[in-house]
């Protein structure tokens, strides 16, 4: 019995045609076609195992596999037109196969259900995206470490409350992002381990009566293990949620970076210039150069969080095992994966081309009395109780504010009117280089500590 696309592959018990709006609403082919190659890989593994287990003959398996391979080629060449009436990628491919090899195509679905099939395809698909993201994160981390190394002499303001707080090395700031990305990558690596389980063999929900070998299909497909519980294997999507959660944390970090790129390129900051290749102009204001890439990364954070909320909500309260609700698991995950991948690729090409205005950064680092704490520490080291030292420097800052002067511009004699403990050596202590390098505690901003962390990072990333 051969079927055309208007009679469903599951049509046996139905007497009425499906309503056309239901067909449109029910179908997932418009998006799950992205998993076509994973579906074919899964089917080839399944057919191989079925023959090894003598559930079908070697001849049958060979024909099925040849058919599937020819479909893969035609997909690559854009020769296959997916049909909504066939609902999803699984049934479209099975239909194609049957068109090519006849009723034998129907044997492929022995000891398998679309439920274990879709769970397998989706895990294969997300594993690949995970691996791509892990690799791209390594490359992105290298960029931050290289920036840190290249500009080790650049001093910039460090902020709290976006008010200038203490001077820091630009490199220290870059390495802060390196640390965030390192943890982000770690999250992807560890959830990849949990994702690495093959649902094939779980059937519709309860396993199968055929003598299958799920270890074999797991191995062929590159999974660590077959699933240990069929209900869990076909009905949980925690691997999708973890992926989305990891992506959300990652893009939260990248949105902070993007915000800083936007701030730092503004006329008011002017710390960096973004490359022309990654900025856009305005259709009306000829002078404009906008940080659109950074703004879009910041903006796309919304959809990534939204996708996480979407899948969490879809899964909440669903009874075991499969429910059609779960078809809603894919679009958000595809979108998240594709969005993260393009963003990392953009950062990889944009970040190495940023140009620093080191003079401007240095100047900004010295504003707003960012060395006042060091001045007070100087007095405290000379025996003045810190509270009093704080008071003395407070008075000096007040003079500075009234006369629009930095601390180092106030003459020594005037300083000595306020405290006799102040001597000429204070000017060395409050120089920005000193202020930075004195913060030599582990993980601090001194050149020594930052250089140590650059060396550690290079080792981890395999950089020379
Ligand atoms: N298109 C479905 C999905 O994406 C495949 C699984 C269908 N299973 C079922 N019992 N209807 O989840």
Structure keywords:
single chain; 464 residues; mainly alpha; Fumarase C, Chain B, domain 1; Fumarase C, Chain A, domain 2; Ribonucleotide Reductase Protein R1, domain 1; 3 domains; two-stranded antiparallel sheet; two-stranded parallel ribbon; 6 strands; 60% helix; disordered N terminus; binds arginine
In total, the number of domains comes to: 3
Proportion of residues in helical segments: 55-70%
- Report the sheet with the most strands, covering strand number, pairing sense and barrel closure: 2 strands, antiparallel
Distance between the termini: 65 Å
Please name the fourth-level CATH homologous superfamily of the largest domain: Fumarase/aspartase (Central domain)
Class inferred from helices and paired strands: mainly alpha
State the name of the first-level CATH class of the largest domain. Mainly Alpha
Outline the low-pLDDT stretches: 1-5
Task: Give a structural overview.
By secondary structure, this protein is mainly α. The protein folds into three domains: 11-110, Fumarase/aspartase (N-terminal domain) (Fumarase C, Chain B, domain 1), CATH 1.10.275; 115-361, Fumarase/aspartase (Central domain) (Fumarase C, Chain A, domain 2, Up-down Bundle); 365-461, Ribonucleotide Reductase Protein R1, domain 1. Helices cover 60% and strands 5% of the residues. It is built from 19 helices and six strands. The protein has helices spanning 20-26, 29-32, 36-52, 58-76, 89-101, 114-150, 170-195, 214-221, 230-235, 238-265, 292-315, 330-350, 358-365, 372-381, 386-403, 412-418, 426-429, 432-437, 447-461, and strands at residues 155-160, 163-169, 197-198, 225-226, 272-273, 355-356. The strands form three sheets. Strands 1-2 form a two-stranded antiparallel ribbon. Strands 3-4 form a two-stranded parallel ribbon. Strand 3, helix 8 (214-221) and strand 4 form a beta-alpha-beta unit. Helix 10 packs parallel to helix 12 (330-350). The longest helix is centred in the first third of the chain and has 37 residues, at 114-150. It is elongated, with a radius of gyration of 31 Å. It starts with 19 loop residues before the first helix and ends with a helix. The structure holds arginine. The site of arginine (ARG) has 10 residues, from helix 6.
């Amino acid at each position: 019995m051969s079927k055309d696309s208007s009679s469903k592959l599951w049509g046996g018990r139905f007497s009425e045609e499906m309503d056309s709006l239901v067909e449109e609403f029910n179908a997932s082919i418009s998006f799950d076609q992205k998993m076509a190659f994973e579906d074919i890989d899964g089917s080839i593994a399944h057919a191989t195992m079925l023959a090894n287990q003598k559930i079908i003959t070697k001849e049958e398996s060979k024909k099925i596999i040849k058919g599937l391979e020819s479909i893969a080629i035609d997909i690559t060449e854009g020769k296959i037109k997916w049909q909504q009436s066939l609902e999803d990628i699984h049934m479209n491919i099975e239909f194609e196969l049957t068109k090519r090899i006849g009723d034998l195509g129907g044997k492929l679905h022995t000891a398998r259900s679309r439920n274990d099939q879709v769970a397998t395809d989706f895990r294969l698909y997300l594993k690949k995206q995970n691996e791509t993201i892990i690799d791209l994160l390594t490359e992105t981390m290298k960029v931050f470490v290289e920036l840190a190394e290249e500009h080790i002499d650049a001093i910039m303001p460090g902020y709290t409350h976006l008010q200038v707080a203490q001077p820091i090395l630009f490199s220290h700031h870059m390495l802060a992002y390196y640390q965030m990305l390192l943890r982000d990558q770690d999250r992807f690596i560890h959830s990849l381990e949990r994702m690495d389980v093959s649902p094939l063999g779980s059937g519709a929900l309860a396993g199968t009566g055929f003598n299958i070998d799920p270890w074999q299909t797991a191995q062929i497909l590159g999974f660590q293990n077959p699933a240990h519980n069929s209900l869990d294997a076909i009905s949980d999507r925690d691997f999708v949620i973890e992926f989305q959660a990891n992506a959300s944390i990652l893009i939260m970090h990248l949105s902070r970076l993007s915000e800083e790129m936007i701030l730092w390129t503004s006329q008011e900051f002017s710390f960096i210039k973004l490359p022309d290749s990654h900025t856009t102009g305005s259709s009306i204001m000829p002078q404009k150069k906008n940080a659109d890439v950074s703004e879009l990364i910041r903006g796309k954070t919304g959809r990534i969080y939204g996708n996480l909320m979407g899948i969490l909500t879809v899964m909440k309260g669903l009874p075991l095992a499969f429910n059609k609700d779960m078809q809603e698991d894919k679009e958000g995950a595809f979108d998240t994966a594709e969005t993260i991948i393009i963003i990392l690729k953009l950062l990889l090409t944009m970040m190495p081309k940023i140009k620093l205005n080191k003079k401007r950064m240095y100047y900004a680092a010295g504003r707003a009395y960012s060395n006042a704490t060091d001045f007070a520490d100087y007095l405290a080291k000379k025996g003045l109780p810190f509270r009093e030292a704080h008071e003395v420097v407070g008075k000096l800052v007040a003079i500075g504010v009234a006369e629009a002067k930095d601390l180092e511009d106030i003459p020594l004699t005037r300083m000595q009117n306020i405290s006799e403990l102040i001597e000429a050596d204070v000017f060395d202590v409050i120089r920005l280089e000193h202020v930075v390098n004195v913060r030599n505690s582990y993980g601090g901003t001194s050149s020594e500590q930052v250089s140590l962390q650059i060396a550690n990072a290079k080792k981890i990333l395999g950089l020379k």
